[in-house]
Please model this.
Amino acid sequence: MRILVTRPSPDGERTAEALTAMGHEALLAPMLEIRFETDVLIDLTGATALAFTSRNGVRAAHAHAAFDALSKLKTYCVGEATAEEAKASGFQSVVCADGDVAALARSIVAAGETGPILHLRGRHAAGDLSGDLEREGIESCAAILYRSEPVPALPRIAETGLSTGQIDAILFYSPRTAKTFVNILKDDALISARTTPCLCLSDTIAKPLRAAGFERVKVSVTPDAASLMALVADESASQQRHTPTT
Model:
């Protein structure tokens, strides 16, 4: 299959490598540009642990001047990929949740944390970790360490591929990438894209696509990369079964 990857760099390149290893052709069309806020003051006063809801949060923290102090705090991560990034970056005590913000909050509660929990995040974060924790009586605060800016247009090769029906599937990893994709599509590409399989990491990501009239939106069983790659494999097998033989 020829698959459009909407994930920002550098994760988009990693996804492309995984798809290539599966025998697919990957086209990179990142919908967001990630920019670190390196001059943000992080107040560590009283903080008992950190929480990350994205790999980019980990990367931004690693690039921050306060990293040495941050790395010594117990670190809760939303899922396996974020936890791996934290370990590789040098965070010393990493706990992995099951892949979404609600699971992250449950993990922090189950550990008996009382807070304050410092959530290092982007300007636009999925879910409401602070709200989930505060409902459990756990104090939390947030520091915004990066922002993700929507791109103004699709790469030409991606737009042409969609317009001519030469894209077999599109991968979506976040609600903002899905919303940005819908917003920047031009008419010809939009008409074709609405019938192209859209493979999503979660129902939340799928919602803006369905609302825009996309007809073939599919969601992975669990919100993790392995499950999404399994969905890619299922879609590939399905398309092969429906390809006419000569």
In short: The first helix runs from residue 11 to 21.
